[in-house]
Amino acid sequence: MIRISHLPFGLLILALACANKSQVIEEVFKLPKHLDESSAVEVTSKSDWIWTLEDSGNVPELYALDKTGAVKNTLSITNAKNNDWEDLTSDDEGNLYIGDFGNNDNDRQDLAIYKVDALDLKNKTAAVSKKITFYYPEQTEFPPKKSKHIFDAESFFYYQNNFYIFTKNRSSKFNGRTTLYQVPNQEGNHAAKLISTFDTCDTFSHCAVTSADISPDGKKVVIQTSTYVWIFTDFTGNDFFSGKSQQIDLESFTQKEGICFIGNNKLYITDERKKKTGGYLYQLDLTKLKGKS
C-alpha cells in the first residue's frame, strides 16, 4: 500500500492522477483540439477510419481519424444543416448515416436521418443522397409540459434495413427511462414505431442515454451514459430490452457522447472535452468485464 502523505510532491500528483484514471476503459488517443464537442463515433465495415462529428451549432462536417487520432479527412456536407446532429451509424455497404434528431427542448418537428454514400467518404465535399424524416406519434404538443420531455434522442444504430433510436429522457420527473423506436430506412416521413422501454438509473447526469450500437453479429446491443454502459444479450427479434442486461461502471465521469463496436467484443467510446477533462477516444474490452446483471 502506498502512503500518499509520504510521497514527494511530483509523485503525489502522479499518484492522484493514476487513482482517478479508470481501470475499465483504456485511453487510445486524445481527440484533435478542434473536436471539443465530439458527439459520435463510428467505424464502417469498408474502412478502418474512425468517424466523428460535432453536435448542434457546429458546421455540417464529418471527420475521419486514423488509429493515432490524426485527421485523415474532413467531409463537408453541402445540402444539410447541422440542426442538432447527435450520432452516426453505418450499413453493411459502408454508407454512413447522420442522426439529426437532437431535441433538447422537445419542440422539433423536423427530425431527420441523412445518408452519405460510401463512395463519397474520401471526398472533401458530399451531398446527402437520401433523407429520412420521422416523428413520434406519442408526442402531440411541441413542446409538451416538462414532465413529458421524453422526446429528445442522441442514440441510434442501423440493423436489418431499419434504424433503432433510443430516447434521452429530459423529464422534470427523471426516472432513467429510455424508449426504443424503429424507423424504416426509406425516404419519406415515418411514424416511429415504439418497440420497448428500459430504465437505466435515476440521476440524470449519470443515467441519461447518449449513444448506442449493435455488434456486427447482431447478438449484443449497448447503450451508454456518462458513467455506465449497459450490454443487452439473448433478446428476441428487435426488442433489444427483452433479454439479459449487464450494467458496467466505467469508473470515469465525463461527458461521454459516442460508442461503437469494433468487432463483436470491443468498443470505442468518445467524450467531450470540458476544461482539462475528457476529449479522448477510449477502448472497452467486453471480454474483461465484470458487471451487475
UniProtKB/TrEMBL annotation:
Source taxon at top rank: Bacteria
SUPFAM superfamilies: NHL repeat
This protein's name: SdiA-regulated
Lineage: Bacteria, Pseudomonadati, Bacteroidota, Flavobacteriia, Flavobacteriales
